[in-house]
Amino acid sequence: MNNFKPLAEDRIAHYNCCKVGQKFSIDGNLDKPAWKGAEKSRRFVDLVTGEQAFLNTQMAALWDDEALYVAYWVEEPAVRASFTERDSLVWFDNDVETFFAGEDCYYEFEINAYGTVYEVFFIYQDALKKGSRFDVPQFDLHSRDVDVLSGFQDPTRFRKHPRGRRWAFMDFDFPGLKSAVKVDGKINDPSHVDKGWTVELAFPWEGFKILNPGKNFPPKEGDTLRGQFFRFEALHYHGKTITESVGWALNEHGVYDSHIPENFAYLHFSEKQ
Which of 88, 96, 197, 233 is most solvent-facing, going by the fewest CB within 10 Å? Predict the structure, then answer.
């Protein structure tokens, strides 16, 4: 029996994303005038319960005619990272993650304090058919690096999402993506109390045309986009690592799973600068 129920609308976060007039470099430094003038989100909450997280994480977003820009402020007294190879298993480190929902698909981006990036493009299996918009070489199941995500991430909820399985294109690269991290502390040095790290991202509009071919990109006043913003924290004690990292997000999902586009927040685009 399918018992999936999306989050109530009044629990889903809304963020006002304003247009930015000045150009700026993507280097992880969020002291720029553009970010100082951007609206910071509320403090992230527990992915399951919605309770406020015990370490502060906030995001902000801006846009111009070229791209959508996302920033994260990550409080972290002991900044750690281990993975350095692109598309390695970054979620086992402490990381932040950005998801964007699309038409019959969605995109996942992860980054750790080393700046190591992991990307995947997901297409629901019932949508990738001969003659569909996904029937192109970019999403060829035989020549690309493809995995399968079955329902929810947690196997105890297998098949309970109405869309079920999705193809995961592991070799997808968001066109023109730029990313940078700046650490305020000493990475992997437990003797030093750190302040944390910041993340700065640029997602050019070309990639969003793949996700949502019927929408305006760049957007117009009042347009919306569904996206979600996460942080996962791998806790360590007594020489052990907790197997299920703590998950925080802009709004809760009600279950320990980031892969629920129906629960993603709303970005509202404004041309106000």
Answer: 88
